[in-house]
Design brief:
23 helices; 61% helix; mainly alpha; disordered C terminus; two-stranded antiparallel sheet; 643 residues
Amino acid sequence: MDGSAVAELEAAERVVMRWDSSSASASAGGGGGDEPMLFDGGGDRAEAERFLRAVDDLRRLAPPSPAAVGSPRRLSSSGSSAGGAGSGAVQVAMARLEDEFRHVLSSRALDVEIEALADLSSLSINSDRSNSASSADLPPPDDDDSVSSTIGRRSSAYRSLRSIREIDLLPDDAVADLRAIASRMAAAGYGRECAQVYASVRKPAVDASLRRLGVERLSIGDVQRLEWDALEAKIRRWIRAARAAVRGVFASERRLCFHIFHDLPISSSTISAAAAATPATHDTPFAEAVKGAALQLFGFAEAISIGRRSPEKLFKIIDLHDALSDLLPDVSDIFAASKAAESIYVQAVEIRSRLADAVRGILSEFENAVLRDPPKTAVPGGTIHPLTRYVMNYSSLICDYKATLSELIVSRPSASARLAAEGNELAPSLAEMELPELENQSPLAAHIVWIIVVLEHNLEGKASLYKDLALSHLFMMNNVHYIVHKVKDSPDLWGMIGDDYLKRLTGKFTVAATNYQRTAWLKILNCLRDEGLHVSGGFSSGISKSALRERFKSFNAAFEEAHRVQSGWCVPDNQLREELRISIAEKLLPAYRSFLGRFRHHIENGKHPELYIKYSVEDLEIAVGDLFEGVPPSPHNRRRSHG
């Protein structure tokens, strides 16, 4: 080494040794207390520039030997014996730069309004991912001589998607300082130590950001023990928080790490053989800073995906699946390109797959639950069964989620085979159930039709609970009518099940309504027939007044019983109730009017006609208006006249 080089080296050593972090004055903990710092974000920056130039001179004139590379804190205390002339100063320089790096990361961090990130409604789920070109790169490490060099172009250096909202975690000048420090440490073989400092400072900051977003530290067991109402609310909050965490927090951390460590050699020559198998890269500090928070974030979705499957969870799990699917391209851009962090992306993909499995399993469980719903007690008045309302509302919601479900449901239901294999007591009758196969029917549509088929089958079992056959038919009429109208009220549901199956349902409703009227009113209408009233003999023929009186008495008793009972029955649909009354009146009133016209004079010519002709046609019309209200009949239906 010539004389001028020796002089340069000595001058550089003097500059560096003035900032010896291991000296007695600074031994209480580098960077803390009142110790002056080179990179304090203000004041005279000339000393910081001189220090960096001195570090560059040391690296140029006295490069460290392999034996001298290691913890700058430990080696700086051993002096120059570790590696020859200038080596001790290099260790002092590295220790000082480590302290400065920690100081800038900690003291210059911006107070970011993390909560505002949770409102990402402006970020389109179907964002155009084509506008992601990068127009400039960061300067290479050799151009970092000037601490004051700006990185105003850095916003375009890291590929930024429309769905990602990157925020500045530190001011530009602080990031430039960190880059300058990191490049010197990495060039001297201390890149790993620099990365460890970075992770130790940024990891608590990332954890704090997720806490502010409402991400709780819950174990899988904690999540699975929550009541569903509480869990449902947490899923809603998690979706908002996950979008903010991935597209705001993690993306911003990745960008910060990129601008500090891009293209820098992070691994040191003293790393262990195990670590050498997976050498550190410029993404390693980022991975170490966010990995714990990311695993915690996605751990919640994982707990949901492997939790108990029950029908009420289906739609929130679909929401969770869709939210994760929406985030996966961003998770891929942020994590998948990094060997150190790609496991986070792999985990997110696996969780989405398990959520998809959960959706398929829950739909199957729902179908089986509808079938197994036991026929316990008949609902009063033959009204719409709660199961019918629940199943049809559920089916309508399935159609609301058809975009996702059409992708996830790829096989048709297997009808009775699955249930028979489970030993279901209803399995023998399932063999008679037919699953209509419509042209171009999707698997999801087949499942919806199957759900309605299973519901019909269950309702038939519940109808058998009624002792009155007419009420059993009315119950089926009400419930199938409700199914038909729910289908017609939902274009998506109608489109799923198709016109042919809707016609089949409508026909089933018509049959039930016809069977009700025949069973409930045929006996009453038979009282108004002529058969059995005429007498004939050798000397006379005509009407048997005693038979006629009995016929009127039979009609009165049958009608009064029907009125009393069927007024307590229920047809909840206003239009159907009115149509049913009209249909009954159209059969009953003309028959009664005709019967009364033919035979009333036979009764009125006898004693106490009011005991037999108790009702006028108008009385019957009023009484029919009482039917199906679900309440006892009112007294206004008493006969008004019989004359």
